[in-house]
Design goal:
It is a single chain. The protein has four domains: 103 residues, no CATH class; 147 residues, D-Maltodextrin-Binding Protein, domain 2, CATH 3.40.190.10; 163 residues, 3-Layer(aba) Sandwich (D-Maltodextrin-Binding Protein, domain 2), CATH 3.40.190; 188 residues, Rossmann fold (3-Layer(aba) Sandwich). α1 packs antiparallel against α2, α9 packs across α15 and α16 packs parallel to α21. The longest helix is centred in the first third of the chain and has 42 residues. A hairpin with a 4-residue loop joins β13 and β14. The strands form four sheets. Strands 5, 6, 7, 8, 9 and 11 form a six-stranded mixed β-sheet that branches. Strands 16-15-12-17-18-19 form a six-stranded mixed β-sheet, with helices on both faces. It is built from 21 helices and 19 strands. The N and C termini lie far apart (112 Å). The relative contact order is 0.09. With 648 residues, the chain is α/β, with parallel strands linked by helices. 44% of the residues lie in helices and 16% in strands. It comes from Phytohabitans houttuyneae.
Length: 648
């Protein structure tokens, strides 16, 4: 006679055990990667068998002829062992694929999850290579996640000095989002990191700095000029010896602006100090001789004052040039590869033929950019953002990330250096211990060198020419003033950046009669001259056409010629196209080049650097063209004068 079924409570306990077993096996999905997962797999499979057999047997009528206890135990043990063996084999063989299939099916069904937003701050000199690194990383994570990158990384640039000031102040959002608060910062050197993090704010709660690669500062010499060097040794000489060698062979040397460029700043420290006595500056006479040699190189090559990217971009646009340039090895390699450089050279081209490449000379007393990755933790940084920045840093240190760093022209740590950091692209890959890293200078040393450089540099002779045509009388929305009033205010502030040895003059156009109207004659820059400029600007009433070309022509002739002691420049602001052109930009550019006068253009309103040939006019003379909103004209003028002349 069949026995009664077990109580419902017993059946429920069997079901609960089965559920727990399923959870345990699920935890160990995939090849178990740690002891906990192995234990979960074995115990889960065992409980699953026991609970299943118990549940099934619980639902059957019990017979009076029960099996012997030992037989039941042996059967249970055998079944449990088989279950563990089969489950383990299936998990080992199929688990990883099944997990991948499940993830791929999820992507196909619902699309990619929203990637974590990470803001990456780079320097103007390194922004193109930073974009390359980020693109390769996003491609890597997408490949591992069925086409779905794990992070969306926004790359933008800001000069290190300005980034430092923002970090010290907690990164206030004063630009309406133009410079978002960074989660990662990739400066060229830890020199900036130590300066930026000297203070602390409530919003900045933590920083992790990881050095991932290096790039020495070199003298990049055109291959044809380098072939004339007598013994062919490309390392071992000091910076002073290389400058002397350049003078003997007639090479010009161009250096990036030490105010705007990390490379220019560290190169100037190396030129003005000795490795054995880094705190002792060269005599003023020696500093002036160095500055004269470097400014001649800039003038002869018609190079734009600015970063190493702008120097190399101009070098590429000029074609064959006998001028050597002071740059980081990475920038030289990318130039020889035909890679995007930034500025007006954002498009990649083909690699240069060997006879046109730049060849690196490695000074014995040079500095090396150590390329840190700085993960910044703010008070409201999310866990996902922290994990994303950590993952990017870890990838850069992995074999795959180091290979990408090498491809970008850097020297990664723990990596055999090869192409493209090779002879094919102007570098010497096997320097090893021959090129020892010079300790980065203290902040006090950098400040002392920059002050000495300003004193030793030639003075400036600047003619500022403002558009006073009828359209400059239009109101600027949100400014409560006209276009001309905003420009005039910016001009008055900008003139304060000229030093006591500098000269300036002030014109407006159109004149009545004539193309221009002189307001302040060219003469010494000082408080009296600036007060005269303020009074004269207050008398101007915008009216008439825009004789831009005639104004440029007359200004270039009036400002004089650059030489070793004086640099001549014309800064012209315009908001429209020349309505009665009698000269071409090519003719204006050639005349300015012959006189070694740099032309800087600020284009506002209807004017544009891209549409009117203004950029070709400016770049061709070693100047630059800046597009500006009418409301921001004053800021552009101030930044231009600050970067070019640096103040008294």
């Amino acid at each position: 006679m069949p026995s009664d079924p077990p109580p419902p409570l017993k059946r429920a306990l069997y079901l609960l055990a089965g559920v727990l077993a399923t959870v345990a096996v699920t935890i160990s999905t995939g090849t178990p990667s740690n002891p906990f997962r192995w234990v979960a797999l074995i115990i889960g499979a065992l409980i699953l068998v026991l609970s299943t057999t118990g549940f099934v047997s619980a639902g059957k009528p019990r017979s009076k002829d029960r099996q012997r206890p030992r037989l039941r135990i042996r059967r249970t043990v055998v079944l449990a062992g088989l279950a563990v063996l089969i489950t383990g084999t299936l998990v080992w063989a199929v688990g990883p694929r099944a997990a991948g299939w499940a993830e791929a099916a999820g992507v196909w069904w619902s699309g990619c999850d929203h990637p974590t937003m990470v803001r990456v701050l780079a320097t103007p000199e390194g922004v193109e290579s930073t974009r390359y690194l980020v693109e390769e990383y996003q491609r890597h994570t997408a490949g591992d996640h069925h086409g779905c990158p794990t992070a969306r990384m926004y790359v933008y640039s800001e000069p290190p000095d300005e980034a430092r000031e923002r970090l010290l102040s907690g990164w206030p959002n004063v630009d309406g989002g133009a410079y978002p608060r960074p989660d990662l910062w990739l400066p060229d050197s830890t020199l900036h990191v130590s300066e930026a993090l000297a203070g602390s704010t409530d919003s900045l709660v933590g920083v992790t700095t990881t050095v991932v690669a290096s790039s020495p500062i070199v003298l990049a010499v055109p291959a044809g000029e380098a072939a004339r060097e007598v013994d062919g040794a490309r390392h071992g000489r000091t910076w002073s010896e290389l400058l002397a060698m350049a003078g003997e062979h007639g090479w010009g040397i161009a250096r990036p602006d030490p105010v705007a460029s990390t490379v220019g700043r560290l190169a100037t420290v190396a030129l003005f100090t000795g490795e054995s006595r880094p705190d002792k500056l060269a005599p003023l006479s020696r500093a002036r001789a160095v500055e004269q040699q470097l400014t001649r190189g800039l003038d002869e090559g018609h190079y734009t004052l600015g970063t190493e990217s702008s120097l190399l971009c101009q070098h590429r646009r000029e074609g064959a040039s006998p001028t050597a340039v002071i740059v980081a090895e990475q920038a030289m390699v990318r130039f020889n590869q035909g890679a995007a450089l930034g500025g007006r050279c954002t498009s990649a081209g083909g690699a240069l033929p060997e006879e046109q490449i730049l060849t690196a000379f490695y000074p014995a007393d040079t500095f090396t950019l150590d390329h840190p990755v700085v993960a910044i933790r703010w008070a409201d940084t999310s866990t996902a953002q922290r994990e994303a920045t950590d993952a990017f840093t870890a990838w850069l240190r992995s074999p795959q990330g180091r290979a990408v760093l090498l491809t970008a022209g850097l020297r990664p740590q723990r990596t055999t250096i090869s192409d493209p950091v090779s002879t094919r692209f102007g570098a010497v890959s096997g320097l090893g211990s021959t090129l020892k890293a010079r300790a980065l200078p203290a902040r006090q040393t950098v400040e002392a060198v920059l002050a000495a450089q300003r004193q030793a540099a030639r003075h400036s002779r600047v003619l500022l020419v403002l558009d006073a045509s009828g359209s400059m009388g239009l109101a600027v929305p949100g400014a409560g003033a006209t276009r001309f009033a905003v420009a005039a205010a910016g001009a008055q502030t900008a003139l304060s950046y000229l030093g006591e040895r500098d000269e300036f003059g002030l014109w407006v156009y159109p004149g009545s009669p004539g193309a221009v109207r002189p307001l302040v004659p060219i003469g010494p820059a000082g408080p009296a001259a600036r007060r005269a400029a303020a009074r004269a600007l207050g008398t101007v009433r915008p009216a008439g056409p825009t004789p831009l070309d005639q104004a440029v022509k007359q200004a270039v002739r009036a400002v004089g010629t650059s030489d070793d002691t004086r640099g001549a420049a014309v800064v012209i602001l315009t908001d429209g196209q020349d309505q009665d052109p009698s000269l071409t930009e090519g003719a204006l550019r050639d005349e300015a080049r012959d006189r070694r006068v740099r032309v800087f253009v600020v284009a506002v309103g209807a004017a544009s650097c891209s549409r009117q040939g203004l950029a070709d006019l400016a770049d061709g003379t070693g100047g630059a063209c800046f597009d500006a909103e009418p409301k921001g004209t004053d800021t552009v003028l101030e930044d231009l004068f600050r970067s070019l002349w640096g103040g008294p």
